UniProtKB/TrEMBL annotation:
This is Suppressor of fused domain protein. InterPro entries: SUFU-like_domain. It comes from the Bacteria. It comes from Jatrophihabitans cynanchi. Residues 35-190 form the Suppressor of fused-like domain.
Length: 195
């Protein structure tokens, strides 16, 4: 069920994103059973780079799966995925972002910086990364009629990296990535050496 307030929230986020990137996005939409549609906006901040953003996750506050009642003051967020993809080799990655964005409504996921999510399948055809590490984005947040909505960045990671991260922490994984100079914008990158 949609209401004017939730649509005002999305309109505010949409306007801020277009202002941030200075362009109108390419849009795609997907529906999941029992869940309102999730849009994915694609911007091209510089030639060859793609910024995919969910639009729809923030309609409702995120509420944990163990909660019996939706939290009216729970956190709201949208997701940002940034890639270098000059030939659109990973154009189907938007579907994986839509699945991630539907998870709060479908599975009671509450996203927060430092958490990991493994989808159990490649984020796009032919890549090693099957999940993401969540952290703050440069966009930060948006003030809307329903309160603040955070824009959280999701960084693609392999299943092995995600499992290692759950033991050692997100800061340690980011240090490994930085130390090995991995290009985190490249979905075709090799996995980090975690030995």
């Amino acid at each position: 069920m949609q209401d004017g307030r939730s649509e005002d929230v999305l309109a505010g986020i949409d306007a801020l994103l277009q202002e941030h990137f200075g362009q109108s996005p390419v849009r795609a939409s997907v529906s999941f059973v029992g869940v309102e549609p999730v849009e994915v906006l694609r911007f091209e901040p510089v030639p060859g780079e793609r910024a995919y953003l969910s639009l729809g996750m923030a309609r409702r506050p995120m509420t944990g799966a163990g909660e019996l009642v939706q939290q009216a003051d729970g956190p709201r967020a949208e997701l940002l995925l940034q890639l270098r993809d000059p030939t659109d080799s990973f154009g189907d990655v938007w579907r994986s972002l839509a699945v991630l964005a539907a998870a709060p409504a479908v599975e009671g996921v509450v996203y927060s910086p430092g958490m990991t999510v493994d989808l159990g399948a490649p984020l796009a055809a032919g890549v090693r990364c099957s999940g993401v590490l969540v952290h703050e984005s440069v966009i930060g947040g948006v003030d809307t009629v329903a309160g603040r909505v955070d824009v959280l960045q999701v960084v693609p990671a392999t299943a092995t990296e995600l499992a290692w991260c759950r033991v050692h922490g997100s800061a340690a994984l980011r240090e490994r990535w930085a130390g090995q100079e991995l290009d985190l914008l490249d979905l075709a990158r090799p996995a980090a050496d975690l030995t």
